[in-house]
Specification:
By secondary structure, the chain is α/β, with parallel strands linked by helices. It contains 8 helices and 9 strands. A 5-stranded parallel β-sheet has the order 2-7-1-8-9, with helices on both faces. Strand 5 and strand 6 form a beta hairpin. Helix 1 packs across helix 7. The structure holds guanosine-5'-diphosphate and adenosine-5'-diphosphate (ADP). The site of adenosine-5'-diphosphate has 14 residues, from helix 1 and helix 5. Guanosine-5'-diphosphate (GDP) binds next to helix 1, strand 5 and strand 6.
Length: about 200
């Protein structure tokens, strides 16, 4: 039986645009996609669970993962390391399952070098003013971190040109519907469907 590799979907965008919020809503709506859990040296926030939200690591542990080539990509962001465990992604794709990575922009561009066939979705705010509001009112970080995230966000917004799709996160359910449409369309691309037809033709002759 012909086995197709899964789709690698990367959801990225500027800090504070709503990647985390949109991704967890998508997670509820789209159960047939696997979600990659990242490793980080950031301290857990209230309610975050090790192995569910992140794999929380010390700096030494994280650097060991880098050395052993256990990360598909990693980036330093606001003084902490974040990275995607490599084996889990590779195995999921080999099993033919679709996987989504919710990561910041530098990491997404590194994934693109390794997986140019991936689907790169860039989440954008309805306006820059709204992006500022979201970063301010989230209120989980100190003022210094908020300032640093806003300046990073400005540079990050310019990275949209490297992506396949731009999705406006005006309302979370709408943004999620748009992402679901992209996934549905990508699953139906003829280069993914054709191998199945070719297999059928062989069987019937
Ligand atoms: N490169 C990379 N970025 C990640 C990874 N996991 C999470 N991030 C990004 O790191 C940034 C900070 O994440 P976090 O501290 O959880 O804060 P928040 O998502 O902005 O609330 C976000 O932009 C995440 O998308 C990863 O494995 N690799
Ligand atoms: N569509 C939206 N409308 C209004 N607020 C939103 C929307 N999406 C996310 N937010 C809010 O914006 C803030 C940043 O969202 P978050 O998911 O943490 O962003 P990111 O993961 O991109 O840094 C949070 O307070 C979140 O509740």
């Amino acid at each position: 039986m012909f086995k197709q590799k899964g789709l690698l979907i990367v959801l990225s965008g500027p800090s504070g645009v709503g990647k985390g919020t949109v991704c967890s809503y998508l997670r509820e709506k789209q159960k047939d996609i696997i979600y990659s859990v990242s490793a980080t040296t950031r301290k857990p926030r209230v309610g975050e669970v090790d192995g569910v939200n992140y794999f929380f690591k010390t700096k030494d542990e994280f650097e060991e993962m880098i050395k052993k080539d256990q990360l598909l990509e990693w980036a330093e962001y606001c003084g902490n390391y974040y990275g995607t465990p490599r084996t889990f992604v590779e195995e999921t794709l080999e099993e033919g399952k679709d996987i989504i990575l919710e990561i910041e922009v530098q990491g997404a561009l590194k994934v693109k070098e390794k997986y140019p066939e991936g689907i790169f979705v860039f989440l954008i705010p309805p306006s820059f003013a709204e992006l500022k509001n979201r970063i301010f009112y989230r209120g989980t970080e100190t003022e210094d971190i908020i300032k640093s995230r806003m300046s990073i966000a400005k540079d990050e917004l310019q990275m949209m040109k490297y992506y396949d799709y731009a999705v406006v996160n005006d309302e979370v359910p709408n943004a999620v519907k748009r992402i679901q449409s992209i996934i549905e369309a990508e699953r139906l691309r003829k280069d993914r469907i054709l191998p199945y037809y070719e297999q059928w033709l062989k069987e019937e002759l």
